[in-house]
Amino acid sequence: MKNCKKRGITFLALVTTIVVALIILSTVVIAFESIINNTKKSEFAKEAYLVKKQVLDYEFMNSKYPAENDIILDLSNVASASENQFLEEPGYATNNIELISIDLSKAGVENVIRGTTKYGAFDVYAFSVTTKKIYYLMGEKIGNDTYYTLTDELYKLLDINDVK
């Protein structure tokens, strides 16, 4: 009989290699998605903070807000998981939040991505005179969450504490 040696990769080694490669690939994809979401959160936080700071500076200098018009926000138009971002507003219990839409050019805000009405009537920044919070009424969907205002999580990304 001839000495018959089988050469090559066994099926078990091939399956093991594929499983390990898939685990590594899924880890990289999850990490990449997390980096993208954190970048989006940071961009939104920086822009919302800039708008808020400019609105407060304008009010300080002019004794009035750079308002365009009054808005009554019906919370039924807001993603239910994100309603808690409006919790401090006086109209929260009745689902009607009183805000003023911001005239970005009057406030001196330039080069913003959001709040330009380019995507419809809700694509505006609005301000609460009561709580001094800025809201992006269209909401910024990032991952599984929708952000309307600067949350504690977003403030931590900015690493600032002067205007909260």
Give your account of this protein's structure.
- The chain is of the alpha+beta class and 164 residues long.
- The protein has one domain.
- It has three helices and five strands, in the order αββαβββα.
- The protein has helices spanning 11-62, 104-107, 152-158, and strands spanning 67-74, 96-102, 125-127, 134-142, 145-149.
- A hairpin with a 2-residue loop joins β4 and β5 (145-149).
- The longest helix is centred in the first third of the chain and has 52 residues, at 11-62.
- The mean pLDDT is 87.
Short note summarizing the structure:
The chain has 164 residues and is an alpha+beta fold. It has 3 helices and 5 strands, in the order αββαβββα. A hairpin with a 2-residue loop joins strand 4 and strand 5 (145-149).
Keywords summarizing the entry:
5 strands, 38% helix, 164 residues, alpha+beta
Order of H and E elements: HEEHEEEH
What is the general shape?
elongated
Largest sheet: 5 strands, antiparallel
Looking at the chains present, what oligomeric state does this protein adopt? single chain
Please give the alpha-carbon distance between the first and last residues.
Answer: 85 Å
Strand content: 15-25%
- The number of helical elements comes to 3
Helicity level: 25-40%
- Give the low-pLDDT segments: none
Question: Structural class of the helix and strand makeup?
Answer: alpha+beta
Question: In the residues, how many domains can be counted?
Answer: 1
Number of strands: 5
Taking all residues together, what is the mean pLDDT? 87
